[in-house]
Every structure is written in C-alpha cells, then in structure tokens.
Amino acid sequence: MKKYARFCSFLCLLKSFDDFKIMGAIKEQLENNEKTLLPQEIGTDYTFKRKIVWPNAIGFLVLHFLAFYGVYRVGKAHWWTALWALTVTVVSGEGVTLGAHRMYSHKAFKGSWLIRFVVIVLHTIAGQNCLYVWVRDHRQHHRYSDTDADPHNSNRGFFFSHIGWLMSKKHPAVISKGKTIDLSDLENDFLVMFQKEHYKFLYIIFAIGIPIAVPIYGWNETFINSLFVSYFARYILQLHATWLINSAAHLYGTKPYDKFMNPVENRLISMIALGEGWHNYHHAFPSDYRAAEYGVRYSVTTFVIDVLAFLGLVYDLKEVKGDVVKTRVVKKGDGSHPMFSNQSEAEVDPADLLNSPEFDDKTNLEISARHVTASG
Ligand SMILES: [Zn+2]
Ligand SMILES: [Zn+2]
Fold first, then answer.
1. Which parts form a coiled-coil structure per UniProt (predicted)?
2. Fewer beta carbons below 10 Å: N end or C end of the chain?
3. Distance from the alpha carbon of residue 290 to the mean position of ligand 2, in angstroms
C-alpha cells in the first residue's frame, strides 16, 4: 500500500512538472505573440476607456493658470525679460529637436562629446522629462504610430495626442511594447544616464533656477516677473509647441510621401516647432537628419545642424537619396507633392522600386551618409 502511495505521489510530481513545462511553453508562446504583433494588428480599440490620473490633470491645470498670468506679466516686466524667455525657449528647444529627437532618438547624425553635453543641458532646461524617457516614448511612437501601443495615439483625437496622454493611465499595450524598445545605446551613454539619475535636482537648477536668476541678477528684474515670465509662461508655451507635433502634425495637413499614415506636412507647425512640422516626410524617412525633404526652409534645426557640421562638431549626417523619396511619393503619396505629384507609376524606374528599402516599412532606412568629417 505504501509503495502504491509513493508511486502516486511520484506520478503527481511528474504531472505537476509537466504542467509547469506546459505553462512555461504557453507563457513563452504568448510572449512571442506579443513580441511579433505588427502595429496594424494592434490597431486602436475605440471602446477602451482611459482612467484619468487626477494629480497630473490638476497639476497641468494649475500650471496653465500660472502660465496665463505669466503671459499677462510680460507687459509689466522689463522687455529684456521677454527677450530672455524667448531666447531660452528657442535655444533649449534645440536640445529637444536637434538633441533628443534627431540625434538621440533617430541617430540621424553623431555629435562630439561637447555637443552631447550641451544637448543634455539644453534638454534639461526645456524640462520635458529626462532624455531616456523622452527617447523611449518617441521610438515607441514611431514603431507603433497611431495604434494603442503609441503613447500619444492620434486616432484618439487632438486633445489626447496633445496633452491628454500625459494625464491618463497608460494603455496596457503602451506598457508592454515599451519594454521591447531597445535603449541600449542610451544605457551606455554616461551623460544620458547621469541626467536620468539626477533629473529632479537638475530640473530645479536648469529648468527653474537659471532661467529665473539671469533676469534678476542681469537687469534687476523682480522675482515675481522673472518667475512667471521666464519659467511658467515660457515652460508651458514651449511644451505646447512640442505637443503640436504629436497632435496637429498628425491631423491637419497634406501627405505627399505616404497617404497611408496619419502624420502630415504642416508649415505652421514647422515654423512654431523649429522645423519639426514636415511630419509626413519624417515618419516616412525618420533617420534623415533634415526631418524634411527641403533642408533649411522653415527648419531652424536643420540650419543649426548644418552649421555644426561645417564646424566639425557633428558628423555622419544621414540623408535619404532623392530617387528613394521620388519612388515613395509616386507609390504612396496623396498627390500633393510639388514636383512628382503628376507622375504615373510607369515613369518610375522599376529598379528604384526593387532597390528601395522603404517598402518594408521599417523605421531604419538605408541612407547615404554625407558630411563625414572630423571628431567624436
Ligand atoms: Zn509623429
Ligand atoms: Zn521622430
């Protein structure tokens, strides 16, 4: 009898071991499915109800009241203070557009140690969370554009893609897919990890302290004027300029390069956001350092990169070849391209189509490197 009981418990043990193996296999299969799901398979579940994160919502509301008051105080402040706030907005904006976006998120060019240091400082002044999180969200935005796995899915409307996503609980797809984004390059970058580690302290010094202190000690501005103009008004207005790229530049404009995606070309946004409004081109060819087909026109950021390249401070600038752009315009554009819109598919060299890597819809395109100059 004892032998029989022992045999039974041995069988049970084997059974539970088998169960464990089966469970493991199922889990692995689920994880693989999760990893291999394509953006179009994720889509947008319009029945999904978002939970509001009230502390964030109330925080943004208060910040907006303070910013409105800051705009009112511009009239009472020294005109240098307004000029200073504008200068801080544009210069620190480059930390976002040139630095976090084109250099770090898309590796559209490489920067010397000095440039990377300046970028981290300017990005901290802009105060749009640490660069590590910024880049993770942005790479995820490109990989899963306008699906539930995109942190600011524009299919959920203007408000959500503009600011609503920052005051809502993340969709489960954003959380699970966020873990699959490769950030190993950032993890090996001392400056990026230092900023991540000490972000709150650095924010207080660079985003609040220095912008407020300069007008006070520079031209005897009052603390109140400096606080409201150089921090609250400047900070919130700059955030809106960035957010417009996620909202308006995904909703209102033309699609000369790819009509099958949400991002659009929007000249006004390009002027406001230092050249980042040519968003249909940018999503079609994300690794192009110009983030537009036509270089420096309405793109302060591209002009700055060109100057830095001339000085040898940035190098290995990536630029998509004209024939690759043309092929995409003819194949997928909405007909609004000023040069290639009337061209029929027959006029495109078939070799272009065969050799064009953009048709596999990957974010990393094969690009001709130019400006291969100096340093590092
Ligand atoms: Zn976008
Ligand atoms: Zn981008």
1. none
2. N
3. 11
Q: Are 154 and 130 contacting, i.e. CB atoms less than 8 angstroms apart?
A: no
DSSP string covering 99-156: IIIIIIIT--SEE-HHHHHHHHHHHHHHTSS-HHHHHHHHHHHHHTTTSTTSTT-GGG
What would the DSSP string read from start to end of 185-225?
HHHT-HHHHHHHHTHHHHIIIIIIIHHHHHHHHHH---HHH
- Give the containing element (helix H, strand E) for 317: strand 317-319
What integer pLDDT is reported at residue 364 of this predicted model? 37
Is the pLDDT at 36 greater than 80, yes or no? no
Cα 212 to Cα 234: distance, rounded to the nearest angstrom = 11
Q: What would the mean pLDDT of 334-344 be, rounded to a whole number?
A: 76
CA 63 / ligand 1 centre spacing (Å) = 25
Taking the CA of 282 as reference, the closest ligand is: 2
Q: Which two tokens stand for residue 5?
A: 């009981």
Residue 368 belongs to what H/E stretch? strand 368-370
Question: Residue 173: its pLDDT value, please?
Answer: 93
Write down the pLDDT at residue 37.
63
Q: How far is the CA of 101 from the centre of ligand 2 (A)?
A: 6
Residues paired with 314 in a beta bridge = 111
- Domain positions in the chain are 50-246, 254-376
What is the C-alpha to C-alpha distance for residues 153 and 146, in angstroms, rounded to an integer?
Answer: 4
Closest-approaching ligand to the CA atom of 261: 1
Q: State in Å: Cα 249 to ligand 2 middle.
A: 12
Prediction pTM value? 0.82
Does an H or E element contain 318, and which? strand 317-319
Of the pLDDT bands very low, low, confident and very high (cuts 50, 70, 90), residue 343 is low
Distance, in Å, from the CA atom of 169 to the CA atom of 190, rounded to the nearest integer, reads: 31
Of 266, 238, 271, 270, residue with least CA distance to 251: 266
Handedness of CA 333, 335, 337, 341 (dihedral sign): positive
Contact 152, 160 (CB under 8 A): yes
pLDDT digits (tens, 9 = 90+) for 100-133: 999 999 999 999 999 999 999 999 999 999 999 9
